[in-house]
UniProtKB/TrEMBL annotation:
GO terms for molecular function: hydrolase activity. This is Acyl-coenzyme A thioesterase THEM4. GO terms for biological process: fatty acid metabolic process. Gene3D superfamilies: Hotdog Thioesterase. Belongs to the THEM4/THEM5 thioesterase family.
Length: 220
């Protein structure tokens, strides 16, 4: 398998990326408002029509693909189009990941507050959404330890239901390594430290990837 990290030199200007981030934040607000709206039928149809106009306006000037990796002005590796951290991806929570060396090799943490759009069982977060967050955070920990790769397996134990609208914390750190394989463990816990989700992931570094000893900080 070949995989090109696809760094780009001619990234958009920071000012355009900030404008895109503002549009993305507004779109997330829209998604939340749609999920919770109690507007009457006629108003829903009217708003859908207004949104169709805006959608066409954006589609008229589409890119061929989402934003690839690029190096930001502060040297940070950015992935604006990423589904979990991307500042230009409305689907992203987004997760803001910080290094947390106290939890071990590649240790990372992120504050997470899920929203009603993440609903699975009524009043709770969808298990697949928790898995998405865990997959990315565990993968980030592997990359931070200089052992970036693709998820081979991801195993979750859903210990308690995950609420939305409450501040939670997600953490991960490398558990062990063997050749190109890196096992990472993580969890989502509430503010009292009660574990809601436990995760273990196996990340495999493709043979073609160069060594990543000085892993850059990564942001959306
Ligand atoms: C610097 C930039 C970094 C930026 C990063 C920012 C953070 C981003 C964080 C993003 C996080 C989000 C991340 C995502 O969303 S990643 C997206 C989801 N994952 C994928 O799409 C992966 C698809 N699969 C593949 O590409 C290949 O199968 C991989 C690369 C995984 C292995 O293909 P490769 O050809 O290399 O493998 P090999 O055949 O030589 O086998 C090698 C060894 O591995 C063992 N094995 C193989 N497959 C599996 C498996 N599935 N489970 C368990 N074990 C497996 C195999 O038995 C052997 O073991 P051994 O016999 O040697 O003991």
């Amino acid at each position: 398998m070949t995989f090109d990290l696809a760094f780009t030199e001619d990234a958009d200007a920071e000012s355009r990326l900030e404008a895109l981030a503002a549009l993305t934040r507004q779109t997330r607000e829209l998604m939340d408002a749609v999920a919770l709206t109690a507007a009457p039928e006629g108003e829903l149809a009217e708003i859908a029509g207004e949104l169709a106009v805006l959608t066409e306006r954006l589609r008229a000037v589409s890119r061929q693909s989402t934003h690839p990796f690029h190096i930001g002005s502060d040297g940070t590796l950015r992935h604006v189009g990423n589904a979990v951290i991307g500042s230009g991806n409305p689907f992203a929570l987004p997760l803001v990941i910080e290094p947390d060396p106290s939890t071990g090799e590649g240790g990372v943490r992120a504050d997470v507050t899920f929203r009603p759009i993440h609903e699975g069982p009524p009043g709770s977060v969808h298990g697949g959404v928790s898995a998405l967050i865990m997959d990315h955070l565990l993968g980030h920990a592997a990359a931070l330890a200089g052992r970036g790769g693709f998820t081979g397996t991801l195993t979750l134990r859903y210990v308690r239901r995950v609420p939305y609208g409450e501040p939670l914390a997600a953490t991960a750190a490398v558990a062990r390594t063997e050749g190109r394989k890196t096992w990472v463990e993580g969890r989502i816990a509430d503010q009292a430290g009660t574990v809601l989700v436990e995760a273990t992931g196996l990340f495999i570094t493709p043979t073609q990837w160069p060594p990543m000893r000085d892993a850059p900080s990564v942001a959306g």
